[in-house]
Design goal:
2 copies of one chain form a homodimer.
Chain A: H1 3-10, E1 27-32, E2 35-45, H2 56-74, E3 77-87, H3 92-108, E4 112-120, E5 124-136, E6 139-140, E7 153-157, H4 162-171, H5 178-189, H6 195-200, E8 207-210, H7 215-226, E9 229-233, H8 234-238, H9 254-263, E10 270-274, H10 279-288, E11 293-300, E12 304-308, E13 314-315
Parallel strand pairs in A: 3-4, 9-12
Antiparallel strand pairs in A: 1-2, 2-5, 3-5, 5-6, 7-10, 7-11, 8-10, 9-11, 12-13
Helix pairs in contact in A: 2-3, 4-5
Chain lengths: 326, 326
């Protein structure tokens, strides 16, 4: 049984008072007519989500970053978060840099640590973020997974695949020049949640998700929630691998680069859709948030995800996303 | 370094946009003028917070109950919660009863599961609850720890000490008749959060806290936050041990019974204060919520907590509360 089946089988219930329950990047509550609250929780377990030797400062950063990325994918403004921390022992040499990394990112996004829990146990970090989404004339500006429509453009922010390159490079399953590995590792350890872009896309994007498990898998959630299909251009996708543009990378086989981009995971970029009439607005949102975006495909009526190369010929989709219980 | 020092040292910051940050039962946000949001997070680790052989149904109940108890202590109406779950493996024989116990209590309190996370890892349960608190004419009705004033009465809801009796009985450090152990264990495994009482005490109680680490320790947080002291009647406190009223219990030494009541922990009752002018209102709140309350002492100007017996003579305070890192 996979992660999604598990949730579906044991924990899914019909939504009652919430505006939106399980299954999007955030849940939505609406305690007052003009405001919605976006809520998201992520748990990181040592040995599973982070390498044992990771620098505590970057771990603190990343633990919050992955949660802020969920708020970004909903277009929410970060307000506050809680931190639950199980620690094998109280080690100031670990706690001091961990809290500095965590709170530096929190400060950068005006997201306040408002509570939580600490206990003795195997190193585990659980963060719940809470964000604010305006409701204008009765219409929520939240970006959901379910809003993609046939004909919409598909975009990705920033670059993809470096985290996977770093993981494979660190494990030794891929040989990379030291400088390239260090750069990719920096990207894996310190993702920058696209909060400003998410907020700028309110009222512009039709659907959004953050890329944590891999582009194809996460985009698949948008397609499923929206009841549509899509076509993606692998030639454009390949340009999203930042270090794939460097001369040194031409050594990497195209299949490896494509795997990193399409199914690498741990990217924390946004994948989003917007009507083609909004192309100028998308570019304006990208400029306003100083975040590059790339158009990589189009939403189609027919279900499923079709990969095509530069010549429009089909590319077999043999890429799998990450499942914590697969 | 203890749990509170750890938080103080590494994670405490000045509060900015939140109404209330770290240090009460819940944090408070106010996204709209007439509403506050109460937020609380608890993490339960196998082997630390629950016995390995605990029934999954009761564990599901308890994991949510301890969080709802924090909302109760703020007078918040439960709205929703997130669940992060690390599991060693996907075991339907565990997950099915766990989710049933969790969701049965959620349904009983109208508290909706809106999201969360699941991952592979050592069995850990992290829940964040979100509740609603009205703001009337600019004044929040949240019950805080900081509102106790000299002369206020001190109350405790329900009964105290059974969870500690059950723990000592299960560990064999205390010998109890089987029926009594079973009854106490039921109380330890299935605490009933005092949500209705907390809501009924809005505008009546001056301060409140839920008793998770032991009455004296938790009441000490109220005294510290309010800048006051207190006098507690140990003779009345002894009557709070439910099974202490049974004939079979006269075998238990008074010191043991007093330890269970004053420093037992895991009770999830409310300790609260109210001006003596509100005695009728407190009784009305107790009646409206069908929750017995007992007046056990009084807030005083002089800092510190003084225990007195039925004759008013001092009783040495040798009781310690639970600290996860002590």
């Amino acid at each position: 049984m996979g992660e999604f089946d598990l949730i579906e089988r044991y924990f899914r219930r019909p939504v009652r008072q919430a505006v939106l329950g399980i299954g999007d990047d955030c849940a939505l509550l609406q305690p007052a007519p003009a405001h919605q609250i976006a809520v998201s929780t992520d748990m990181l377990v040592a040995g599973r989500h982070f390498l044992a030797d990771v620098d505590p400062y970057t771990l603190g950063h990343k633990a919050l970053a992955v949660n802020l990325s969920d708020l970004a994918a909903c277009g929410a403004r970060p307000m506050a978060f809680t931190l639950a921390l199980a620690l094998p022992q109280v080690d100031p040499l670990w706690l001091a840099p961990f809290s500095r990394g965590l709170l530096a990112l929190a400060d950068a996004h005006g997201c306040e640590l408002i509570g939580g829990d600490t206990t003795q146990g195997p190193l585990t970090i659980c963060i719940t973020v809470i964000g604010d989404i305006p409701v204008v004339q009765g219409r929520s500006l939240a970006l959901l997974r379910s809003g993609a429509r046939p004909g919409d453009d598909i975009y990705v922010s920033g670059t993809l695949g470096d985290a996977r390159l770093a993981l494979d490079g660190s494990r030794g399953t891929l040989t990379l020049p030291a400088a390239q590995l260090a750069a990719a590792r920096q990207r894996m350890d310190s993702p920058q949640p696209r909060v400003a872009l998410g907020m700028a896309l309110r009222g512009v994007a039709s659907a959004a998700i953050d890329i944590s498990d891999g582009l194809l898998g996460d985009l698949g959630h948008v397609l499923g929630a929206s009841g549509v299909g899509a076509r993606l251009d692998t030639a454009i996708a390949l340009t999203l691998l930042r270090h794939g543009r460097d001369a040194a990378d031409t050594d990497l086989a195209e299949a490896i680069r494509l795997t990193c981009v399409l199914a690498g995971g741990d990217d924390y970029e946004l994948a989003f859709t917007a009507p083609s009439s909004e192309r100028a607005a998308v570019q304006a949102a990208a400029a306003a948030s100083a975040t590059p975006v790339t158009r990589i495909g189009q939403i189609e009526v027919a279900p499923g995800l079709r990969l095509v190369d530069a010549q429009g010929a089909g590319v077999a989709n043999t890429f799998r996303s990450f499942d914590h219980f697969a």
